[in-house]
Design a protein that fits this description.
This protein has 218 residues and is of the alpha+beta class. It has five helices and six strands; from the N terminus they run ααββααββαββ.
Length: 218
């Protein structure tokens, strides 16, 4: 996702051997070299930070990556009539204020939501979905120690464990978008460990975690 690039430009290399003693020409080129050193390098460093590197890209850069990776940076919310208060078949309730969602909706994701979606897609296209590889990209997406995956060894589910309650934007993705990296045809479930989870060691082992954690399925 990022690599070291040599951004240096040596304009003096463009001087032909016939003009090596042309002091005025060399002084002019040296002046241009100073401008290149300041502006050329800054331009490419900014471009790498804002576009090329998925881990640091801004909204524009993420939009470019979305086109490259064919990812729709939206959350589609299904129609929900079960919780809608209203009267008659149209659920008329004074403009539906605060009572539910009577129609589906498509919302744009935030910058950090987009970054997680694109990192997951990039990983899916470039790495084998092994447990060590998935844990590597989870560290990039969520931070060191925030999330880890365990294979159920039955080709049914990969279990993602969150060490603490995810922020509300991450919960939106977990609820509405199938974005977590996983092997093909393998389902996803996730467990959220509270900050004060009882257990032993880094994985909070406490006799199969009975009653101390919350498991949710996608």
């Amino acid at each position: 996702m990022s690599q070291e690039l040599d951004l240096s430009v040596n304009l003096l290399r463009s001087i032909l051997w016939q003009y090596e003693n042309a002091d005025k020409l060399k002084a002019l080129i040296l002046g241009q070299q100073e401008w290149i050193n300041e502006n050329h390098t800054k331009f490419w460093n900014d471009w790498i930070r804002d576009v090329f590197n998925l881990k640091t890209a801004n909204a524009f850069g993420l939009a470019v990556w979305a086109r490259i990776l064919n990812v729709h940076l939206t959350i589609e919310r299904e129609e929900n009539l079960d919780d809608v208060f209203g009267f008659g078949v149209e659920h008329e309730n004074f403009e539906n204020g605060g009572f539910g969602v009577a129609a589906g909706a498509i919302d744009n994701v935030s910058v950090e939501q987009a970054r997680k979606m694109l990192l997951a897609r990039y990983f899916t296209l470039t790495y084998a979905p092994t447990v060590p590889n998935i844990n590597m990209i989870l560290e990039v997406m969520f931070g060191e120690g925030a999330v880890y995956v365990v294979d159920s060894l039955d080709m049914l589910y990969s279990t993602y464990t969150f060490n603490g309650e995810p922020d509300y934007r991450t919960r939106e993705l977990l609820k509405n978008v199938d974005f977590l990296p996983r092997p093909a045809a393998v389902g996803v479930d996730f467990t959220i460990l509270p900050d004060d989870a009882f257990g032993f060691g880094s994985e909070h082992l406490n006799f199969e975690n009975g009653g101390f954690t919350e498991r949710r399925y996608i």
